[in-house]
Design brief:
By secondary structure, the chain is mainly alpha-helical. The protein has eleven helices and no strands. It comes from Kribbella deserti.
C-alpha cells in the first residue's frame, strides 16, 4: 500500500469523501456510481476474500465500471480504505435508556468486539488521522453518553472513550493472531503457544514472574475464564471492568458526597 504524502493537506479531502452521499433530503434517483456504492463493494470484497483481495480493479469489475471511473469518485486506495472502514463499522449499538452506565459501556464494548470478530480486516486498515466518518463518530457519540453519565466531563470523557476503544481494538488484534488454536466454542486460546514456551524453554529462575503467572493460570478452573453473557472473553472483560472501577473511583474521589 502506498503511503500518503505527508504534504497532502487533506484530512479534509477524506472528510469530504466520508460525508459525501449522506442523505440530504433531496428527491430523485441516486447516481449510478457514488462513493458509498464503491465503498459498499469494497466492504463486500473484504468480507468475502479479505483485505488482500481489495483493489480498485476488483471493485471496478464487480460494479461493471472502468477503474478510471472509480478514481473520479475516490482518488486513491488509501482514501477508499478509510471510507470502507466507516461503512464497515455500521451504526452503533442501541444501549437503551439504562441508568447503569457500567452495563451500557460493557454493551458498547461487546458490540465493538463482536463487530471486529465479524470483520477482522477492519483492524488492518491504516488511518492517517483520527476516524471522523459518520459511523465512527456515531460510535464515539454512543460511548460518550454513558461516560458523561458516569461523571466525567469534557476532555476526560473523550480521552476515556479513545482509551477504551484502543483497548478493545488492541485486544482484538492480539486475539486475531491466536486463532490458530480455538477452543470448542470458537474462542481463541491466547495462552496456548506461550504456555508451551514457558513449560519447555523458559528458565524459572530467569523469568520467575512469567512462570508463576502461567502456572497459576493452568491451575485456575476453566469456568473462571469463560466468556460472559455479553460474549466478552476474560482477557477483555477483566480489563474493561478494572477500567470502569477506575472511572468510578476517580469520579467519587473528585466529587465526594456531601453530608446534609
Amino acid at each position: 500500500m502506498t503511503k500518503r504524502d505527508s504534504k497532502d493537506p487533506k484530512p479534509l479531502h477524506s472528510l469530504d469523501l466520508l460525508w459525501s452521499g449522506r442523505p440530504q433530503g433531496q428527491r430523485g434517483p441516486r447516481p449510478q456510481l457514488s462513493v458509498e456504492r464503491i465503498a459498499q463493494a469494497a466492504v463486500q470484497i473484504a468480507d468475502t476474500d479479505g483485505l488482500e483481495a481489495l483493489s480498485m480493479q476488483r471493485i471496478a469489475k464487480e460494479l461493471g465500471y472502468s477503474t478510471m471511473s472509480l478514481y473520479n469518485h475516490v482518488p486513491s486506495k488509501d482514501l477508499l480504505l478509510e471510507v470502507a472502514a466507516d461503512i464497515g463499522a455500521g451504526p452503533p449499538p442501541d444501549l437503551g435508556d439504562t441508568d447503569d452506565y457500567r452495563q451500557a459501556i460493557r454493551n458498547w464494548v461487546s458490540a465493538l468486539w463482536n463487530g471486529l470478530r465479524v470483520r477482522p480486516w477492519m483492524l488492518r486498515v491504516p488511518l492517517d488521522h483520527a476516524a471522523m466518518g459518520p459511523h465512527q463518530l456515531a460510535w464515539l457519540e454512543r460511548l460518550l453518553r454513558p461516560l458523561l453519565a458516569a461523571g466525567l466531563v469534557g476532555g476526560e470523557a473523550r480521552v476515556a472513550a479513545l482509551h477504551l476503544t484502543a483497548v478493545v481494538r488492541g485486544t482484538a488484534q492480539i486475539s486475531l493472531s491466536m486463532t490458530s488454536t480455538p477452543d470448542a466454542d470458537g474462542y481463541p486460546r491466547p495462552d496456548a503457544a506461550l504456555t508451551r514456551i514457558v513449560a519447555e524453554f523458559i528458565d524459572p529462575e530467569q523469568f520467575p514472574a512469567l512462570t508463576a503467572v502461567y502456572k497459576a493460570e493452568l491451575e485456575t478452573p476453566p469456568t473462571d475464564h469463560q466468556p460472559g453473557k455479553d460474549g466478552l472473553p476474560f482477557e477483555l472483560a477483566f480489563g474493561v471492568d478494572r477500567f470502569l472501577d477506575g472511572i468510578t473511583h476517580y469520579v467519587t474521589t473528585k466529587n465526594p458526597p456531601t453530608d446534609h
